[in-house]
Amino acid sequence: MQQHDDIGFIIKLINECIEKKANQTLKQFDLTLSQARILFYLHDHNEATTSQKDLEDFFEVTHPTIIGILNRLEGKCFIRSETNSKDKRVKNIFLTDKGINLFCSMEHFRKTIEQKMIQDLTNDQIRELHTSLKTVYKNIQEI
Amino acid sequence: MQQHDDIGFIIKLINECIEKKANQTLKQFDLTLSQARILFYLHDHNEATTSQKDLEDFFEVTHPTIIGILNRLEGKCFIRSETNSKDKRVKNIFLTDKGINLFCSMEHFRKTIEQKMIQDLTNDQIRELHTSLKTVYKNIQEI
DNA sequence: TATATAATTGTAGCATGCTACATATTTAGT
DNA sequence: ACTAAATATGTAGCATGCTACAATTATATA
């Protein structure tokens, strides 16, 4: 069994390829893929207030990782943050108008990339792929 | 469509989960997953000489990335390198005895993780998963 | 042969992930 | 009410990925 046939290795190659292509596309917006994913989350959850902890839980990364990404987004004025008045430990994160405007332009690219990834697959194959990936994810989490 | 259902997002979650689990396991050997993959490659190709360029091509990463990993491996004496006498631009990479010994201990963990990932899947499902992932990889490369 | 191009490796600096440690605030227990 | 534990965020330093620029050697071409 060569490494190139390991599921884990193929998944790494796919992930890094997605990142490279997405980052090339997002460069025109002065964004990276990780940063764009945060903006998508904030847009999808704009009815609720979002804390750093919410983002850590959703993206399953540690808090220093989230802080770094948020600092860069705030530096570029795509988001703003303010301390929660009811619990001063918490910082709430909001999209700025600049961030909201960007979302509309990016939504198109997001759908395009996701669709190109699964072209040549039948609907059944896509369903199967989803199911198997979720099984793999569950398995790896249990180790 | 929520982000959690995007194939690209699930693949990112799987990849980072694999890295975390593998790095925990490999800590006892003073290795990371990326470093271990290099050692596996060198062991699998021990009949041929390996240059930095060969590793860049196989792992599909840029040369600064490979140089960083190799420097850390050489600092820990798992590999050694020497300039190719026939082409002085080229540096050839070799496993040391320390690196060879480690390989045997790690091979067990590699197979265990890869098997746990695909448990609960039938052979047909595993074949389908492989095929679909390779299609996705091809698609994303063409963007 | 001399020079231009290509190929291989090296360095600097950045983004995103991590662990470990620190700080501030809230909650729980006595 | 006071202290201990839990929770949320912040900082420092590292590994792995990247781009951009540089240096060396080999190859190709005028």
Automatic annotation (TrEMBL), chains A, B:
GO terms for molecular function: DNA binding; DNA-binding transcription factor activity. Residues 4-138 form the HTH marR-type domain. InterPro entries: HTH_MarR-typ, WH-like_DNA-bd_sf, WH_DNA-bd_sf. SUPFAM superfamilies: Winged helix' DNA-binding domain. The keyword Transcription applies. It holds the Pfam family MarR_2. Keywords: DNA-binding, Transcription, Transcription regulation. PANTHER family: TRANSCRIPTIONAL REGULATOR, MARR, TRANSCRIPTIONAL REPRESSOR OF EMRAB OPERON. This is MarR family transcriptional regulator. The lineage of its organism: Bacteria, Bacillati, Bacillota, Clostridia, Eubacteriales.
